[in-house]
Amino acid sequence: MWRWLIYLWPLPVTLLGMLVALIARSSGGVVRRVDGVLESAGGWPARVLRWEFPFSGAVAAITLGHVVLGVSLDALTATRAHERAHVRQFERWGALLLVLYPLAGLAAWLRGGHPYRDNVFEREARAAESVARDQSGRPASTGLHSIGR
What we know:
Elements: H1 5-8, H2 11-26, E1 30-34, E2 37-41, H3 43-49, E3 61-64, E4 67-70, H4 73-78, H5 80-93, H6 97-110, H7 120-136
Parallel strand pairs: 2-4
Antiparallel strand pairs: 1-2, 3-4
């Protein structure tokens, strides 16, 4: 009955993600829906994801609400468990996650940690990825680097 609220709360960020997915689609990318999440691969946004970001470097995927943008379909598949954890974070925190995520990175850095690796949101996503990997019996990630905000 209240399931729609998990889509409403992060809707402003999801709309931003949908705009970027539209740009991806119009620049040669593909867009599909997987388990209630819009996934976009390729196109112009994929080229941006391959840039070297200050703390994380190039990334395979990024989450914006209920939209996951990836460099390729293979990257989306490889990072799905990790990125779904970020989708759940957006469901929990809504648009506030856009502020909380960098603050968590700053807090990690102030404690002497790495702003990306020690970010509480990334640690939670890596834990979900590990659980999914253990349940599926698949080997560890293919080395793709995933980030979600």
